[in-house]
Amino acid sequence: MTILVTGATGNVGRQVVEHLVKRGADVRALVRDPSKAEFPAGVSVVQGDFLDVDSLRNAMSGVSTLFLLNAVVPDEFTQALIALNVARSAGIERIVYLSVIHADLYVNVPHFAGKFGVERMIEQMGFKATILRPAYFIQNDLTVKDVITGYGAYSMPVGAKGLAMIDVRDIAEIAALELLRREQSAEPLALDRINLVGPQTLTGTDIAAIWSDVLSRPIRYGGDNTEGFEQNLKQFMPAWMAYDMRLMGERFLTDGMLPEAGDVERLTKLLGRPLRSYSAFAAETVASA
User: Fold this and answer.
1) How far apart are CA 126 and CA 42, in angstroms?
2) Nearest of 55, 69, 19 to residue 39 by alpha carbon
3) pLDDT one-digit tens code per residue, 150-196
4) Rounded CA gap, 124 and 186, in Å?
5) Please, which residues have CB within 8 angstroms of residue 272's CB and are 6 or more apart in sequence?
6) d(Cα 39, Cα 46) in Å, to the nearest integer?
7) CA triple 136-138-141, angle to 5 deg
8) Cα-to-chain-centroid distance, residue 87
9) One Pfam annotation, family name (predicted)?
10) Which residue spans within 161-216 are E strands per DSSP?
11) Contact yes or no for 130/96 (Cβ under 8 A)
12) What is the C-alpha separation between 289 and 286, in angstroms, rounded?
């Protein structure tokens, strides 16, 4: 049977493909441009797009399990709903969907609200799915590495509530394990939600202190200015997306991204090893510079 991975050329999707191949799965990767796709030997590459229904029908033909990952785009919600409807028509029951933690709490943040709508569709249409709800991706902070090292400031609006940041590599491995668990089950498994969190919940001040230790010089936290955060983002992303990210940052400040009891222990058991820490990420980043 075949596992279809969408978003396969992105950071998470590419790693999901690699983990599945290492574990002997039959993998099909959905990509917009096959000429730019580089995957391990044995991966079947199919061209398609979430808004091209015929290409989705072709990609999902003969598929038993689907990994659904949608990029943050203006029509993300529509793309996901089309994909799920085509999946249902193709007879696919087994799904792993990459949502976001607190999708039901950050109700005013567009890409959170869209993902929560997708979660509701999955549940109400009776899909046998794992809904993965990751917290903030640790690797997002690579975008502010030069600010940290060059200006001595950590500028992400993390705030004082704390974010349970998780390494992208852990997200991808957990997604692959869940895909295999569903694929290999004799019967479709019941709906499940898993919060994907890191081993620590860190405030902006905590993260600045980690960078201070790794760089052996003072790094200050200066990220609570969400208006300034939006203006900076507008230099390299569309205005609507920068505003979306600002709204998310404001919810960081008021609500944080907090794990539930037992989340860390569950993920540690699932992986069979400790979760990667932010400190390890910072040390790796400095060492590879």
Assistant:
1) 32
2) 19
3) 999 999 999 999 999 999 999 999 999 999 999 999 999 999 999 99
4) 23
5) none
6) 12
7) 105
8) 21
9) NmrA
10) 192-196
11) yes
12) 5
